[in-house]
From TrEMBL:
<dbReference type="InterPro" id="IPR013154">
    <property type="entry name" value="ADH-like_N"/>
</dbReference>
<dbReference type="InterPro" id="IPR013149">
    <property type="entry name" value="ADH-like_C"/>
</dbReference>
<comment type="similarity">
    <text>Belongs to the zinc-containing alcohol dehydrogenase family.</text>
</comment>
<keyword id="KW-0862">Zinc</keyword>
<dbReference type="InterPro" id="IPR011032">
    <property type="entry name" value="GroES-like_sf"/>
</dbReference>
<dbReference type="InterPro" id="IPR002328">
    <property type="entry name" value="ADH_Zn_CS"/>
</dbReference>
<keyword id="KW-0479">Metal-binding</keyword>
<dbReference type="InterPro" id="IPR050129">
    <property type="entry name" value="Zn_alcohol_dh"/>
</dbReference>
<keyword id="KW-0560">Oxidoreductase</keyword>
<protein>
    <submittedName>
        <fullName>Zinc-dependent alcohol dehydrogenase family protein</fullName>
    </submittedName>
</protein>
<dbReference type="Pfam" id="PF00107">
    <property type="entry name" value="ADH_zinc_N"/>
</dbReference>
<dbReference type="Pfam" id="PF08240">
    <property type="entry name" value="ADH_N"/>
</dbReference>
<dbReference type="InterPro" id="IPR020843">
    <property type="entry name" value="ER"/>
</dbReference>
<feature type="domain" description="Enoyl reductase (ER)">
    <location>
        <begin position="10"/>
        <end position="340"/>
    </location>
</feature>
<dbReference type="InterPro" id="IPR036291">
    <property type="entry name" value="NAD(P)-bd_dom_sf"/>
</dbReference>
Length: 342
């Protein structure tokens, strides 16, 4: 098969012929129909994730067709069109038993612990637990966006932050996950302020339901003025020390900060104002993906008219453009989500 292969952290990836994967007894192999290009993939390429071993194939947001199954798989068959969360859970640990597969202690992750979906084929573990059948009318490109960014935003807004109608929500970073958070918070009845340095991203955030948009330079005083003292919920959808701190400082008293964007040590540690966290009784929360069993709720939203999924994917490229698309993540050159179509 062809795949985008990383042979040196930070070095230029190459599209090469590599061996086809085979399924584990509990797993499957998918023919990849579409795969999103995410900031987490960029972190893996740069060597910011300790799980990644070279040579490596990135990619963790995907949709495709089952082409091979392991002997223990019972719920899926060759020909099924599916997606999966980026966390493939084990099903055996205490967290999985409690229905919290997104924090499985024995999880594997395509594109991190193993080769990912920037390829024609990808192997996935524990298929019966982790695969999600897709509606026939949902395109592969749109379905690929669900595996990380849309699903992560959905659980962060709906479950972790528990956004309520009428609340003010600030979203720092209006890329794929941020735009998803804007749309999901809007669908929940919140009033949303989108923050991003890119004029194109800010304009796109408006089309996703943001009531107001701000440049980060204006966000400090701007959010306080627009929200009568600060947001009820503020989300860092980027994962930079500056956006994390800005998100916490955007909150009103007893507000909730939700960290979605990764904060690898290589990027530096955020200066979280713990004095304010204590004095204002702020909540600082993490959100890490979503379990497969929660996908029916997500699919119900994204296939409705309340979520502009058709506007979220703004660019589709062939696999050969994968190295360029990966490099562009750091510069945020393209608004919305870029999808590769192997």
């Amino acid at each position: 098969m062809r795949a985008v292969l990383v042979e040196e952290f930070g070095g230029e990836p190459q599209v090469r012929d590599v061996p086809d994967p085979t399924p584990a007894p509990h797993g499957v192999v998918l023919a990849v129909h579409a795969t999103g290009v995410c900031r987490s993939d960029w972190h893996a390429w740069q060597g910011h994730d300790d799980d990644v071993r070279l040579p490596h194939v990135p990619g963790h947001e995907l949709a495709g067709e089952v082409v091979a199954i392991g002997a223990e798989v019972r719920r899926f068959a060759v020909g099924d069109i599916v997606t999966t969360p980026f966390i493939t859970a084990c099903g055996n640990c205490p967290e999985c038993a409690a229905g919290q597969q997104q924090v499985c202690r024995s999880q594997t992750q395509p594109g991190f612990t193993g080769w990912g979906s920037f390829a024609e084929l990808v192997a996935l573990d524990h298929a019966d637990l982790n695969l999600v059948r897709l509606p026939e009318d949902l395109s592969a490109s749109h379905a690929a966006a669900l595996g990380c960014r849309v699903a992560t935003a959905f659980r962060a807004v709906s479950d972790v932050a528990a956004v309520r109608p009428g609340e003010f929500v600030a979203v720092h970073g209006c890329g794929g996950v941020g735009l998803s958070a804007v749309a999901i918070a809007t669908a929940a009845g919140a009033r949303v302020v989108g923050v991003d340095p890119s004029p194109a991203a800010r304009e796109l955030a408006r089309t996703f339901g943001a009531d107001e948009v701000l440049d980060p330079a204006e966000a400090g005083e701007g959010i306080a003025a627009l929200t009568d003292g600060g947001a009820h919920v503020s989300i860092d959808a980027v994962g930079l020390p500056a956006t994390c701190e800005a998100s916490v400082r955007s909150l009103r008293r007893r507000g909730r900060h939700v960290q979605i964007g990764l904060l690898p040590a290589a990027a530096g540690r955020p200066a979280v104002p713990m004095d304010r966290v204590i004095a204002w009784e702020l909540q600082v929360l993490g959100s890490h993906g979503m379990a497969a069993h929660d996908y029916p709720r997500l699919l119900s939203l994204v296939t409705s008219e309340r979520f502009p999924l058709d506007r979220l994917v703004t660019r589709e490229l062939p696999l050969a453009e994968g190295p360029r698309a990966l490099a562009e993540v750091a510069t945020a050159a393209a608004a919305g989500i870029t999808v590769l179509r192997p």
